[in-house]
Specification:
Elements: H1 26-73, H2 80-128
Helix pairs in contact: 1-2
């Protein structure tokens, strides 16, 4: 594999055959598909585990951000009243992060749509000329 978009192959199943391309037949393809089918459960478990770990890491990052923010407000130890409000602040942090992600994705969607519209308009102008 080259370094080009290597991250896209994160949950891919690579099948290495001992046959070169000119001799690659339908039966080699069937063998590769069978290899995938045999490993499908392991792939699914790996994806689920990855999603769980990512969710836990994000939850921990939200918690750490809230604690850091509370410590910036008062350099002393976090008192009992602040400690009690941490779960609510973590939920607020999570909601705010989700809002920012949605806003970013909407911005990307608008930018892509504008790019495609501009591209179509340029092509229409060239065709009409």
């Amino acid at each position: 594999l080259s370094d080009f978009l290597l991250w896209q192959s994160s949950f891919s199943v690579l099948s290495f055959m001992e046959v070169l391309w000119p001799e690659f037949s339908f039966w080699h393809l069937c063998a590769a598909v069978l290899h995938y089918q045999r490993n499908h459960d392991a792939i699914t478990r790996a994806r689920e585990q990855h999603d769980l770990e990512r969710e836990q890491a994000q939850r921990q990052a939200d918690y750490d951000a809230v604690v850091a923010e509370l410590q910036q407000e008062g350099p002393n130890e976090i008192d009992q009243s602040k400690r009690a409000s941490i779960p609510a602040l973590v939920r607020k942090q999570e909601t705010e992060r989700q809002r920012r992600v949605e806003e970013f994705l909407q911005h990307l969607d608008r930018k892509r749509a504008k790019f495609l519209d501009d591209l179509v308009q340029k092509n229409e102008i060239k065709v009409c000329s």
